[in-house]
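Troubleshooting log. The previous structure file for this entry was overwritten by mistake, so regenerating from the original sequence record. Sequence copied from the archived sheet and checked twice against the printout by T.R.
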Amino acid sequence: MSKLKVGVIGCGSISRWRHLPEYAANQQVEIVAVCDIVEERAKEMAEEYNATAYTDYETMLSEADLDVVSVCTPNYLHAPMSIAALNAGKHVLCEKPMATSEEEALAMIEAAEKNGKKLMIAHNQRFVPSHVKARELIENGAIGKIYSFRTAFGHGGPEGWSIDGKDSWFFRKEEAFIGAMGDLGVHKTDLMRYLLGEEFVEVGAFVESSAKENSDVDDSAVCVLKSESGIVGTLAASWAYKKSEDNSTVIYGEKGVLRLEDHPQYGLVAQYTNGEVVNYELGRIQSNDEGGQTGTRVIEHFVNSIINDTVPPIDGESGMKSLKVVLGALESSETKKIVQLS
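Regenerated output below.
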């Protein structure tokens, strides 16, 4: 079978550290085009990956021979660019959060269906070994009925990660739409839906902007979530964890507790009520502090879904469900009420 031809829109940090290296490492694809409004960045990545550089994504979509497009741009561009690529007959991998509203998300899903193309959202937390193992233990009933959880994703902020540093689009509401909750919180809403195997039905939240100067988006949020079966827990997302990153999750069940990415050595620690403790050395989650994450397996899963014609692990519907929890949290913070997630 001939290789899938890939084009990447956006040549900032997420494409440099994740999409481009992972496509380059995949034997089933070939990077043929890259696009960025900053010509210098597009040319630099084009040279590195032996691709054609574009500064206009519509030109790239019409001129380049592509099967697949990755959308790695500021949040407000995710939906229009994904829809344009789907309508041009390309499969699309879109960065998270998939859109800035439920209406945009639905339009993306409809475009994928109408054109018979795959749409996947790049939530990589599901593929972390400790998270995969925890899901397995939960499904097998190892910790029995789940009562509660707490999950967090926080670091010092995107200025240490984004290619534009303190001048990044992450801090501008008209481009980002949402801050830490869109950057980090949506990863955890997706992760908890995956781990628990059920949807959230209610959310209450405090969403604040207090840690960053010259920013009009949220940088610290704490949410209380309730699932279909009545599991309650907290989710924290923050750009104010200055010293070190926190990417931990703890799940409390009738037969024990699972601690994920909460130990310096073990990716997963299972503490059972009978006194047994099982430490799983699964390889640590990679942090932004280490210069990005390669090997997140997002590209691998996306490419396999195209080649095998299967539903991507995080399709548009799933991406929208994770987004809706975040949108509900924003509404709760604004209205000071618990929000029902229909």
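DSSP finds ten helices and 15 strands in the chain. Archived copy saved in two places this time.
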